[in-house]
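Morning!

This is the sequence you dropped in the shared folder:
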Amino acid sequence: MQLHPIMYVPDQYAEREFYERFGFERHYEGDEFPGFLAIRNGDAIIGLQRGTSEHPVYAEGLRWQFEVATIKEIDEVIATCTTDNLDHEVHVEEDGVRFRTRCVIVRSPAGVAVWFEGPNEL
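The structure's back. Tokens below.
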């Protein structure tokens, strides 16, 4: 069994473009489900669907957190945010000599907080 979350968003195409900046690839777009898109990064697949009155758009109460494997990758996330002028925050979690981890928090076009958590840098 695999988890395939579906996000209801104001503009699924803008949302897909946002995630493509961070290495996601187009996974699905077909005639059998018009307007439904899916993106993929490794095994993670996320569906993107335009919100309706029946399925309203939501942004609060949801936080995507993606683990980034290397310091270089977290630096690339920061560079993408800077180059593309995306509003972002770098949050550092540290505990003396045990760990120091940078998290980059950026909002998607739908307003969802997307966290990229880097590795322990110590």
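Headline: The chain is about 20% helix and 40% strand.

More detail when I'm at my desk.
O.
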